[in-house]
Design goal:
Elements (H helix, E strand, L loop, with lengths): L10 E3 L2 E3 L27 H4 L29 E5 L2 E7 L8 H4 L5 E5 L4 H15 L5 E6 L5 H7 L9 E3 H7 L2 E4 L3 H14 L5 E4 L3 H9 L8 E7 L3 H10 L10 E7 L5 H12 L3 E4 L2 H16 L1 H16 L4 H23 L1 H6 L3 H30 L2 H11 L19 H11 L11 H20 L5 H4 L1
Length: 474
């Protein structure tokens, strides 16, 4: 595909460079977000929501019906909510529900938390503290590899061998009624057979990511039929799960929202156990999903907004701006710093439409030009990413990449390289070293238009593929 000229509108996402979109000179004079009423958007008037008249073609899209996500619980109160015109069911959390935890966890004497990475410390401490408040005698025990450096960190958090709350991974798995597998994706891929073999019949495997299901499906395997399989997936990193839980001691219900899934239920307890787990983590809202939906959405999201697409986008915009004559420091500020600073903060607090409303009239025209040029090319790339995830190709790639980190079968270790070796990131080192404290960077209208187009294309791709709206609102 021909490279775009220095004066053209172009995007580079991952390995692809796209031809410029046709002129948007005849576009509507007010911005809109195509064909979706996403809950993250600030309410907009009808004229702002009508389609931008960009002369670009939409990728061929066949919508997939959303699966029914209704569930039954005998312990917690279920509520029906409407998100973007789709009805879903949720359970509201809150510390006032902690007295219900012994009933939700009926039959469970020990919860084994396997791993001490991002989620492990937060989930173990939240569960322990919630069960103490509920006056439950359920033991929360950390299971780690022999010789792991994480033993000291776990002890510092109050888990000890003497109290029976810290021990070897395999002994912990064997003696736990609920096993929360919070080790890395690659470690799950390498150790799932041994983990399954150590689990008691009728015990419950808990996951916070559906990766293992995707890996098993790619191999033509499934979970053992003798165990239940559930998931609770907090919509934030582990440190935030813990920090907001602690904050919730003063503000009832403060915490990170979570999705839950019941993939396999051997004795009818799985739904209540999963909901109890989420409530104990401090989730203000817990919404239903499927394990398959969760891993596809999560891995796809990482390849889009969180990692791959944004990296490709800022590299391309940095190149565009410098080729048009902008100095390198300003180009970095108007791409990376603009997105990670003022744009993200505005979206987080006031929604995407506020980004547009904050611009001057000339800035709004540049936003529309960028948004209109970027939206459908982003859809094309994101659909390709989604298909790689749903087909299992991306999961196989992740497993192989993880195995290259260590010496194995006579092959030397070959860890991944870092992304900070490009010219843009070298400039970034200089810019960040002199950045005033609290500086959120400039609100560059063209950058904002491309970024919002990418976000909306990802949301639209999720929904067109049959994923629940709450996965994007979480």
């Amino acid at each position: 595909m021909a490279a775009a000229t220095s004066s053209s509108t172009y995007l580079a996402i991952g390995r692809k460079t796209l031809n410029p979109a046709p002129s948007v000179a005849t576009a509507a004079t007010s911005v809109s977000f195509p064909a979706t009423q996403h809950p993250c958007l600030v309410a907009a008037s009808a004229d702002r929501r009508r389609a931008v008249a960009a002369k670009v073609s939409s990728p061929s899209v066949i919508g997939t019906a959303m699966p029914s996500l209704d569930f039954e619980t005998s312990v917690f109160k279920k509520e029906k909510v409407s998100l973007a015109g789709h009805e879903e069911y949720i359970v509201r959390g809150g510390r006032d529900l902690f007295p219900l935890l012994p009933e939700a966890f009926k039959g469970i004497k020990q919860i084994g938390v396997i791993g001490w990475g991002s989620q492990g410390p937060a989930q173990a401490q939240n569960l322990r503290d919630s069960l103490v408040e509920a006056k439950s005698d359920i033991v929360v025990k950390i299971g780690l590899r022999k010789g792991s450096k994480s033993f000291e960190e776990a002890r510092a958090a109050g888990f000890t061998e003497e109290s029976g709350t810290l021990g070897d991974i395999w002994e912990t798995v064997s003696n736990s009624d609920l096993v929360l597998l919070l080790i890395s994706d690659s470690a799950q891929a390498d150790n799932y057979e041994k983990i399954f073999s150590h689990m008691k019949p009728n015990s419950i495997l808990g996951l916070s990511h559906g990766f293992l299901l995707g890996h098993l499906q790619s191999l033509g395997f499934d979970f053992p039929k003798s165990i239940s399989v559930i998931a609770v997936c907090p919509k934030g990193m582990g440190p935030s799960v813990r920090r907001l839980y602690v904050q919730g001691k003063e503000i009832n219900g403060a915490g990170i929202n979570a999705s839950f899934a019941v993939h396999q239920d051997v004795d009818g307890r799985a739904t209540d156990v999963a909901l109890g787990w989420s409530v104990a983590l401090g989730s203000p809202f817990t919404f239903a999903t499927t394990l398959e939906q969760e891993y596809r959405s999560d891995i796809f999201g990482e390849r889009g907004i969180l990692l791959g697409a944004v990296h490709g986008m800022v590299e391309a915009l940095f190149r565009r701006y410098t080729e048009q004559g902008m100095d390198e420091d300003s180009a970095y500020k108007n791409t990376v710093e603009s997105i990670t600073g003022i744009i993200s903060k505005t979206i987080s607090k006031k929604g995407m439409l506020e980004v547009y409303n904050s611009l001057t009239e000339e800035g709004k025209k540049q936003f529309i030009e960028a948004y209109s040029a970027a939206y459908y090319p982003c859809m094309d790339i994101l659909y390709e990413c989604y298909e790689d995830v749903s087909s299992g190709s991306e999961i196989r790639s992740v497993v192989l990449a993880g195995r290259r980190f260590y010496e194995k079968e006579g092959l030397p270790a070959f860890p991944m390289g870092k992304i900070d070796q490009t010219r843009m990131w070298k400039v970034g080192e200089r810019v960040r070293s002199t950045r005033p404290q609290g500086d959120l960077g400039p609100l560059h209208p063209f950058t904002a238009g491309v970024y919002v187009a990418l976000m909306m294309a990802q949301v639209r791709s999720h929904i067109q593929k049959g994923n629940s709206v709450s996965l994007h609102a979480g």
